[in-house]
Structures
1.
Amino acid sequence: MVWKKHDYEDIPGTYVFDGKTAHDSYNINKMLFTFNTEECRDEFESDPVAYCDKFGVTGDFKECVVQKDFLRMLRLGCNIYFMAKMAIPRGTSVQDAGAAFQGITTEEFQQKLQDRAEGLIEKLEKAGGYWNG
Amino acid sequence: MAKIIGGLTCSHIPAVGNAIANNLQQEPYWKRFFDGYEPAKEWLKNAKPDVVIVVYNDHGLNFFLDKVPTFALGCADIYHNADEGWGLKPQAPFTGDAELSWHIAESLVEQEFDICTCQEMLVDHGFVNPLRALYGSLETWPVKTIPLAVNVVQHPLPTAARCLKLGRALGKAIESYPEDTRVVIFGTGGMSHQLQGERAGLINVDFDIECMEKIATDPEWFTQFSNTEIMEMTGTEGIETIMWLVMRGAVQEKAKVIHKHYHAPISNTGAGLMVLENQY
């Protein structure tokens, strides 16, 4: 029994959410899925450890949930969209998480995004036919 | 007979919904993005669709990872929005068109697209935000809607080629519906972005622009790439752009480009809006 290797595993700095990841992080994602409901969020908040136990969230997964260590949760294989259900109401945005991955501040991360779009208008003019106000 | 008036591509970024909710459209960060929606809104108003089919992906509201359909079609009279975990007020419910949905489902299965049919389907920001951006946040929606969800969250995902073929089958399905129903299709999501990993924050403006050109004029171009290649160039979440091909396949090969708008960054992404109109 082996997990099949994929060429996307070689993309640097990238964790593709696939069958293996989804399999290994099933319980924690299932717990995070319940956070769509306010009562579940409240139940978790009142006793995080008990809530983890209820969903079979153990070991490293449990530790990082209880510590609200969102970066580690992602590194362990939590799905970004399910993790966001826990992180966003606690003031950690997806951009904060992206910045943390690179060890930079959110402001620096946002600046990098802006830098990626440098020369945008010129590029659109060159391509032609784009709306530009 | 039902008629496809055209299709459009657009983003479904959560921040867009927040900007609308907080009335930030004319703030410097948002102005160019939202102003570029005006011509598309105008086109949509004149197109007067009876039904909008929204091709999007669920982000863990309706589908948990226990069951992940590759393609899923709403076949209900009504679709509800709900709390995605962020405690936001849900949007007003959306009226469906169950008869058209089931006709599409039958036709797709006949054409060997064995689609998952959903008689209850919660619709998340992926479905809701394009409608809000193009119609405004309304208490009563002026159009019926049908959700068509594509799995772009848990690999294996469908290929770009498969999405284009689904679109072509969807076009045939709609055009064989005997009612005089006017249909517009939204292909949502994308463009380049990556939310996690050390490569988070990737935006590839050059690829996005080329992609918009090719989706308009030569959508087969996109099918040369494997999903790994698309993720390499546009990020793990940039792969959402394959959903545009479902819309593209459903409209005419020679559909006319009415409007093109691109802006970056919006939140973490390159945001592309394009209106394609069928020529009769």
2.
Amino acid sequence: MLQDLLILMRAELMLILIIFLLLFLKLGSASLRNETVMNMVNGLLLVVLALGFLVKDSGMIFGNMFRTDDLLRLEKNMLTLGTLIISLQSYQWLKKHDQAMEFYLLMLSTLLGMFFMLSAANLLMFYLGLELSTIPLAAMVNFDFNKKQSSEAGFKMIVSSAFASGLLLFGISWLYGTTGTIDFSGLAASLDGSPLQLFAFITLVAGFGFKISAVPFHLWTADVYEGAPVPVTSYLSVISKGAVLFVFTSVLYSVFHAMGTVWYNMIFIIAVATMITGNLFALRQDNLKRFLAFSSIAQVGFMLVGISGQSREGAAALIFFVLIYIFSNLAAFGVITLVSSASGRERISDYRGFYQSNPALTWILAIALFSLAGIPPTAGFFGKFFLILAGAGKGNWLLITIAALNMIISLYYYLRIIKAMFMEHNASPLAKVDIPFSPRIALAICVAGILITGLYSGAYQYIYQLLS
Amino acid sequence: MNYAQFTALLLLLPLASFTVLGIWGRKYIRQASGIIGTTVLLVITALSLYAAYSYFLVDGQTNGTYQPIIALQLPWLQFGYQQLSIDMGILLDPISVMMLVVISVVSLMVHIFSLGYMKDEERYSTYFAFLSLFTFSMLGLVISVNIFQIYMFWELVGVSSYLLIGFFFTKPSAVAASKKAFIVTRFADLGFLIGILILGIQCGTLDFMSIIERLTNPQSEAYIGMTSTGFLGLSSLTWALILVFMGGAGKSAMFPLHIWLPDAMEGPTPVSALIHAATMVVAGVYLVARLFPVFQLDEIAQNIVAWTGATSALFAAIIATTQTDIKRVLAYSTMSQIGYMMFALGVSGYGGEAGLGFTASMFHLFTHAFFKSLLFLGAGAVIHYAHSNDMLHMGGLRKYMPVTHATFLLACLAIAGVPPLSGFFSKEEILLAAWQGNKAIYFIALGTAGLTAFYMFRLYFMIFWQRDKHYHSDHGEAPFSMKLPLLVLGALTVGTGFIPFAQWVSSDGKPFETALHLDFSAAPIAMVVAGIGLAYSFYRKENDKPARLSAALGSLYRSAYNKFYIDELYLFVTHKIIFRFIGRPAAWADRNLVDGTVNGLATSTENAAGAIKGWQSGKVQHYALYFFGGVLVLAFLFIYLWK
């Protein structure tokens, strides 16, 4: 039993250990330098990652509330890797911050919440995980203490997520009321698609939709992304979103398959609305963070197209795309973090002539944007192709046409930034940005990921085979 | 023989050259980068010629038919859907081997020309790196074994041409042009992508050979599935082919997706010679030819291909007669010639003599590549010397640029279709195929042939004859590196027409005989002679001043004695009637309707973005309202309406 617990929950236990370690260090008298804390946490995250890869096991514990298998392990590893990259990238920003330790406490708590959410085999467990991954996030958003915008964003986030949680809980209680169970397997067996259950399902979708910023539950996104410190924005848009997308897919596929047609139509509508709204807003943004917020809404729309495939390919394409999305978006955010912490500038117009002063960073940002736009040979091309191929399996060509049209609109605005950086001359471009060791490693990982994940087909095949 | 190693080198070498020049070019090997790029291309050209030699003459044929050879095939991905697998590989068949030769030879010439032409550019090494990238993508495109691979390289070609067109990025017009080209072709690729998905899902394979094999067999599951299902009255096979063709039409600048091509002339001139004359713009023709056995099964798709081609050929030729920018004339003429190749495919049947259109199209692609890149490079030399793109600023250049003049004249004669130059033979075959396939298209093509001769010689006379414009050039005609490609391409322009093309390239791989029919050639040659004669009488000497024209109109009888009266009348007919009532409306439609629609789409998208901005008010209570509203709408839709 104890052995099972230690092995099956090793990622969660490791995170809890790190959190307690940080807490004791904070409470103790020893005053550590921020750099030391960061290097320590990064090292420990690397250990978590290694443990995740080393031992293979699967099973269920805690009266079938907590489960784990190879696929979940892979998903957790992806999230850990992403968190590690963000932690490396926030080096410059956190170095000068008074509360670096608390930042890590909060971030690791949310990661822990996501792990529990992923492993949940039961709606209650899922809800607890979701809350644990949301509430500390609001505090992280508020982490630029001297910026009013940041506190406003934190407030908006906590209030909006309260709506979402309320609805989610409402839906869960209806489901429990109609079926008498909150176990995923029990639910899957006893759902019959009655109107009451449909309503419960809709509120559940709304709760998920809030977390992944699907339209019309996305409105908090832009304000919160803009107000939050850049590393937190990237954490929100990549890690938190990725985790919920994983859970969303597995819940839709394994629990609600009895309502397949309903949820297909619902995802269809939401996907179309999400892609179009995200793209139309992104067209107009001048603030880069806000821009990435909206473009990431559009990306979620594409992922929903893949999910709508209702097939093993759909699930594989989604997980594969999230992996690519982690690399691509974090590469873009990495560059923006560096520039923002060096100069405080975050507007697209500030990036005019960026190539003149920072050729290396320009190329990295360009590769990331090309990947987000889905241009070969970057991984984004393959990711989008698989998503659309999976979606096309259902034969809904209207959805596929809309998705493909949106790919062109998105190309237009991604090129806008590339054009500004490379092709617009600026008499006084941003000063040369110094890249310290940690962010350098993080950017290297991201660029390597973007270039290799797509061309090397093993990643996709591995995911596909895990889904059997 | 084993093709695997050396055909793989065809891809690896330019990729390596791109990497080396891209990473170290700027800092360490700036001076050598041109030489490195050119040497790599020299090797590639040798390899391609060797591949062509061994495929066509040694071992490509089995039982009298050229069989496709899969030189290399690496299973890349097993996608679950109906055992859909994606392989990366190298496919050699008559058309891909022919394309290898075209791409490598033209690219080599452009490399050599650029050694002199781009010598003083600050980003000299970057330029050669981009050229290598483009060559890599284009070679990868033609040897693709499956439709996913071709799509990937297709997009890569788009990226590298984006980089090359926007090479002079300090020029706002170049930046705008590169973006326009990228977005318009990407828009066309949307059709291509959906076409690929339909074909892939319905056939259960993305492999070209298997798609063709399954769809040409009327008993196969894939064929029955694709012809029995449909949408809006067209079968899914027709839809898939039309959508794939849409991608091809975008890359090949077919009406109405051609609007990016004239603007793309903002790129460096050698780049235009490579991309916009010989390689990327014919990718669409190549794509249709690659899937030709499937296209010829479907009458609707064939007709769309044929009529798109014919319309583009005529439309572009009319516009070309009104332009004064030397590169724009060439751009429209390219569009017009690609229109020829396209409709030749559209009117062609399959197998043996019936497949004449296919052979003719490929033949014209082959000959056109050489004389059109010669024209572009010649134009490059002229621009280099005269420091202007505008024909009105040129004249009398034959005295200063003898080599350019001679080769340019050859190319003009070839594109006009004067025997015995290469363009004559290929155009003749196309006209014959059109005559057999579709009489209406034949007459359009015949008229276009006359127009072609007219506008090419208008260009020629205005540049090389007319009055001397007194150039302040600080250098001679051109360095040797710029003259050499002109001479080589000139020789190819003369020689390639005599290649017995039908022996090697045919729709079903079986060689057949073609012969010249003198009686049939009479009409086209008469059109060409008329076109050239007209151009001679109008543009040999400067005489088209609008003031003189109106004066001539006012004193009609005095002019009757005037020897030039006939000229003036022709001028009146062309300038006042043809140009104003046909040319100008055509140009106007091009600028306002076609361009306008695309621009209008962009503007209305932006307006829509502005309109929904009110949504994002910044107030949390509004957000909550929308949130609950969303839930209610979904509940309403799915619980009440949908039930």
